[in-house]
Fold these 2 entries.
Entry 1:
Amino acid sequence: MQTGSLLTPSTLDEFTRCLRQLPGEKFFVLCDSNTWHHCFPVVVDSFSERPCHVHIIPAGEQYKQPETLLGILHELSQQSFQRNDVLVNLGGGTVSDIGGLAAALYQRGMPYVNLPTTLLAMADAAHGGKTAVDFNGIKNQIGAIWFPTQTIVYQRFLQTLPIRELKAGYVEVLKQSLLAGKKAWRQASRRSPETLMKEPEIIHEAARFKMRIVRKDPYDRDLRQILNLGHTIGHAIEAWSLQQKEGPLLHGEAVALGLMAEMRLACALTDLDTNFANEVNRIMTRFIHAPVPPVAAIDDLLRLMLHDKKNRGAAVRFSLLARPGKAITGVSAGEDRIRAALEETLTGIHTLP
Amino acid sequence: MQTGSLLTPSTLDEFTRCLRQLPGEKFFVLCDSNTWHHCFPVVVDSFSERPCHVHIIPAGEQYKQPETLLGILHELSQQSFQRNDVLVNLGGGTVSDIGGLAAALYQRGMPYVNLPTTLLAMADAAHGGKTAVDFNGIKNQIGAIWFPTQTIVYQRFLQTLPIRELKAGYVEVLKQSLLAGKKAWRQASRRSPETLMKEPEIIHEAARFKMRIVRKDPYDRDLRQILNLGHTIGHAIEAWSLQQKEGPLLHGEAVALGLMAEMRLACALTDLDTNFANEVNRIMTRFIHAPVPPVAAIDDLLRLMLHDKKNRGAAVRFSLLARPGKAITGVSAGEDRIRAALEETLTGIHTLP
C-alpha cells in the first residue's frame, strides 16, 4: 500500500519547485474562504502552466458535512474531471478531510495532494489518509481511508494563522511526542508554538513519526490506534462543544482536555507514573480554552463516547499511555472509571486559580 | 487484499446453514421493496438469533442516488451500529452497489455480505467490491472499491424474477464467457436463461471467473478492465435510456447493445474474426429490448461516453475482444470509428425483420 510521500521544502523557491513537479494534467484546487485569501496567492503561479479549477468552500468544521462534499463532487463532475486528474487540498484538517473524501469517491478514486496550511494539519491531519465528514451530529461518521500521493509541508503558511489555532495545533505535536518517547516529549514540551516558523524541524518530526506508524498499519487495524491517544474523550468534548453558545472548541483544544482525562485513566489502568501524568497535565493547561465542560456535562460526554467508533458494544475502549513512547490500545474502561477521570480533570480545571 | 469468499449452496438447508454461520454480532439487512416481499421471508429465520435491523429502500436504479445512500447511513447511525457489525445486502446490483458503498463509508468501513437475488448480481455485480451511486446524471460517478467478506449465491431466488430481468442478467453471463474462452462461450450461448434454476453451475462459473480476475487486480488498475467489455458503449446507452419515455433499459439490455457495437469496433481495431462477431451479435439480438437508440441519438451517446471514467482526455478507450478468451484493454478509438460502429449496429437492429 502506497501511503504517500512527505516533502518539507523550507523556502518559497523549494516549495514552488515541488508544486511544479507534481504529476497530473489538470488540477482541482480546493480552498476554504481563508486559504483562498491568504494561501492561494502563494501557489497560484505554480499552477499556471496546467489547467486548474479552484473550488472554495466556507471555512469552519461546521461545514464538514455531506452537503459540502456533494458540492465538491458536483463541481468535479460538471468540470469533467477524470480519475487521472489531481485534486489539491489547500487548507487545514477540514479541507483535507473533506477533499480527501471527495477524491476517494469521485469515479471510485482519484489522486490527491495535501498542502496543509495549519499546524494541526501539518503535524497530523494531512498525513495518514483518513478522510471524513461529520454526520448526524457525530464527528467523522462517514469517511474512507484514501492516501494522498504527496503531502507538502511548507511552514511559512503558519504566519497566516491566528495564535489560537497555532496553540491548538501544537497539542497534536505534543501528543505525537508523548508516543515517540521521553526525548521527543522533552523537546516538544519545552518549546512553544510561537517559534515554529524558525524551527520547523519539530513539525517535521511529528509528521514523520505519524507517517512511520501509518506505514506499518495503513488500515488502522491495530498499531495505528495508538494515535487515538486523547481522542476518545477529546472527540466527545469536541462534539459537546458544538452545542455550546461559546463553542465550538478547536480540535486540538478538545484533545488537550481529552489527553488530561486520559492521563488520569492511564494512571488507574496502565500504571502510568502519576508524576509524569501531572507534568503532562500541567503543560496541557496552557492549551485549553473555553468552553470547558462543567461536571454536569459528564453524562452527555459519556453518551457521545458510546457512539465513538473505537468501541465494541457497550465498553468504551481507549488507547492509553503506559509510559512515554509506549501506548496500549484497546484498553476497556467502565463508565464509573471514565466518570471519575473526567470529574477529577474537570473539577481541577474549574478550580484553577 | 481480501476480496471475499464465494459460497454456492444449492438447497435451502445449505443456504440457511451459511447464513447462521455468518460472523458478526448485529446485522443491518438492506432490502428493496421487492426483495423485502419476495426474498426476506426466505432468510428471516436465519437472522432470528442475533439482533437484526431491516432497512427498505425503493426498488429501481433511479433510487441509486446520494439521498438513498445518506438515508442508509442515517439509519446505521441512529441505530448505533458499530464498525464491527455487519451489513447484509439482500437484492440485485442496485442494492449491493448502494449498500456496499454505505458499508465502505460508515465509520470509515464496516464489513458487509452480499446475498444477490438477481441473475445480474449473482453472475457479476455482487462480486468484486465495486460500489457506487449515480450522480449528476452519470452512472456510478461516486463510489469506492470495498470488498464484501462473503457473497452467497443461492439460485432459488431467481424464481422471484420477471423473465425480462432474467434475460438481461444472462447478458453478463455471456460476456463473462466471451472472456473465459471459446468453450465457455459455446456452453453459455447454447443454454437459455430459463433453465438456470436447474443448472446453476453456469452462474457459478461466471461468478468464479469474475472472482479470479478480481483477485489478480482488486483495484482495477489493468487486468480487471477486460471486464468492461461492452460496457463503455453500454453505459452510454443505459444513461441515454434513462431520458426516454419508454426507458429505462435494464443494465444487461444496454450491455447487449454495447457488446454488439463493440464487436464491430473490435473487428476494425483488434482483428476480431468477423464471423465470430456476427455469431455473437446474432445471439445478442435475443437480449435487446426497446427503446433502442435511433441513429439520430449517436451524438448524445458520444457525449455521454466522454464522461465515462475509462477515458483519458479526449480519446475514448475500450476493452475489446481479440478472440474468445482474449481481450485487449485501453484501445483508443476516435469519434468517427465509434460513430461507424454504432451506425452499423443500430441500423442493423432497426431494419431487423
Entry 2:
Amino acid sequence: MESVVVAGVGMTEFGRFPGRTPASLAQEAVRAALVDAGVDPKAVQAAFCGTVFAGPGAGQRALKDLGLVGLPIVNVENACASSSSAVMEGSAWIRAGMAEVVLCVGVESLTRNAGALGPDEDDLFGSMGVVWPAVYGLKARRHMTEYGITAEQLALVAVKNRRHAALNPRAQFRTPITVEEVLASRPICEPLTLLQCCPPSDGASAIVLMTEERARRADTGGRPMVRLAGSAMRSGRFADQAEKGENVTVLTARLAYERAGVGPGDVDACEVHDAFTIGEILHYEALGFCEAGEGGRYVETGKSGLGGGGVVVNPGGGLLSRGHPLGATGGAQLAELTWQLRGEAGDRQVAGARVAVAHTMGGTVYELESNVCAVHVLTV
Amino acid sequence: MESVVVAGVGMTEFGRFPGRTPASLAQEAVRAALVDAGVDPKAVQAAFCGTVFAGPGAGQRALKDLGLVGLPIVNVENACASSSSAVMEGSAWIRAGMAEVVLCVGVESLTRNAGALGPDEDDLFGSMGVVWPAVYGLKARRHMTEYGITAEQLALVAVKNRRHAALNPRAQFRTPITVEEVLASRPICEPLTLLQCCPPSDGASAIVLMTEERARRADTGGRPMVRLAGSAMRSGRFADQAEKGENVTVLTARLAYERAGVGPGDVDACEVHDAFTIGEILHYEALGFCEAGEGGRYVETGKSGLGGGGVVVNPGGGLLSRGHPLGATGGAQLAELTWQLRGEAGDRQVAGARVAVAHTMGGTVYELESNVCAVHVLTV
C-alpha cells in the first residue's frame, strides 16, 4: 500500500465573510496549499471537496476557475467531518494507485447558508429542542454528576483555546478571555454558556496529499516530510465514558493509533472536536490522554495548554476560537498540525512535536447511534 | 491492485412516492443488494451513499436501521453522477486494500426535495432561463443544423427507451409510446417535447462491491462473476462532437475502455445518460458506437434497440422511462447491466452480453466546463 504524505496545506482566515462565496473561500485555500506543496494546479490528479451546505457541485464550481478541469472531482458530505472524510477519500485514491497527487478541500459559508441549519421534517429530536447544544449540555451535566467536573474546569477549556487562538492570525476570535467572562456569558444550555459553544463561521481549508515517492521529488526546501501515518473512520454512538457503551471516538482512535504504530502516550499535539467545552473534555478521555473522569483535572493542571507538559490540545484555537465552518474544519485541523510538525507554527509552536492527531465528529442529533468519527495520525 | 467484483445489486421501483423517506427507499435497495450478494449486513466494511438532495447524513440515516453502524460511511454528491461516484469511491477503498466488502447506495426523493432544484443566487445562467432543458434544446438544434438529425429520429430515442422500460417492472413509465405521441407532447424547449425529457423521480439503488477473492467465497449459485473491469471519472466540457473541443464523455470513455482492455466495438449493452433524447444521440457518438453525426441514423436503423444488432442502449429504459432520481441513477444503471451480464434480465435480456458500459453525466448548467462524467465498464 502506498505511503501517503501531507505535501501542502492552506486555509483562509475563519470568520464571518458575508461578501464571499464558498468558491472564493475555497480558491484562496487551494492556492495556498498548492504553493505550499510546490506544485502547479495541473499536477493535481483528483480532487475531493468536503462541505455540508455549499450546494451541489461545490468542488467543481470552486476549482474550475483555478484551471482544475479534466480531473475527477468528488464532493463529500459527512457533517462536521466532511473535510476529514475528503482526506480519507484522497488517501484511498493514493493508496489504490489511482492518483499520485490529490487535493482535498473543505469549505463552508454558514453566513450565506445559515437557513440550511434548521431541523428538517424527519427530525423529531430537533423539533423537540434536542439540538446539539442541548445534547452537550446534558453530557456536561452527566460528567458533573458522575465525576464531579466543575463549571470552572469546563470554562478553562474555552480560556485555553482562546489563549491559543490569540496566537493564530487565522482564528475567528483572538481576544483572550477569563474564566469569569466565560461563566458570565449568556447561558445557552445549562451548564454551557455562550463562550463554551463554537460559533457559526465561514472559511476554507485545503490539503495536498502525495505518494511518498512523488513528495520526494517536490522542492520543499529541506523541511520535514509529514506523513499521514494512520487514518480511521467509523460511525457509531457518541457516548461518554460514563455510559460504558460503544464510544465511537475510543474505537476509531484505537484503529488509527494501531495503523500508525503509535499510542496516546506518543502524541505531542492534537486537534479535537471541541464544538462545546465538554466535548474537548470527553475527547481527552476517549483519546487516552487521561483516565475516564479526569478530563477536568487535565485542563485545570494546564497539561493540554501550550507548554503544559501534556498533549497540547487545539493549539490552533479549536472550533471554539478558530471557528467552525463545518466542511472546512477537518482540513484546518490537518493544516495546523502540519505546521506544528514542520516547526512552522510560530508563537504557538508545540516544541519538538513529532506525532499529532486530528479528531472530528459529525452527525445529526437524531442519529447519535451513527455519528461519524474520523481520526488522522500525522508523524514526522 | 485488487480486482473489483460487482457482487450484489438491488434497486427499488422508480416513480413518485410522496409517502416514502429517502431512508426507506435506500433501505429497500440495500436489503435487496445484500441478499443478492449473499452477505449479512455485518460483512459490509465501508459504505458510500450518493445523493444530491437527501440532506446531510443521508447514508448514516438510511443504514443505521439495517444495523450498519460502526463502519465508515461517506456521503458523496456529484449531481446526476452521485452514485456512479459512490461506486468509484467504493472501488478505491477495495483497490487500496482498505476494505473487502463495500456497499454503494444511491438515493433521491425529488418529490420530497423538489424545492431544492431551483437556481441559487450565484446561478446567473439559471436565472436567465438557461437551465438543462434549454441547454439540451440548443444542442439538439445544433445537431439538426450540423448533421441534419430529424425531429423523428430524436423522438425514436424516447420510443425505444419506453419499449425497453415496458419490459422492466422497476421502470417509472411502462406504457409504450409512438413517434407521433412524442412529437405531439407539450413543447418544453424546442425541438424537445415533454416525452423527450426525463421525469423527476424517487428511488434508490445499491451495489455491493467485493474483492475477487472475497467474491469467490460467497455462495452465488454458480452465476457468472461480474467484474468492474475499468472505471474513469473526469470533469470537463459537456460538448458535442460538432464543437470539436474537449468532450468529457469522449475523454472519460477512452480512459475507461483502456483500463478495461476493451473498445467500443466490444460493447454489448450500455446505459447512457439520456436526460433528454438528444443526450443519448450525442453519447452514441462520444462513446464510439457510431461516427460523429450518425447518431440519428443509429437509432433510426434500430441498432440501439433490443435485438437490433448494435450496442443495445438503455435496456432498462434509461432516465427517460426508468426515471431519474438523481442520486440513484448511476447505481440503477450498474444494477441493470449486472442483470444483463448474468443473463437475469428476463424479457429485456441482451443476448450473450459480455461487455457493458454505464455512463453518467452530472453538473450544473453554469459549470458546463466542469461537468462530471463517470464511465464504468463491466465484464463477465
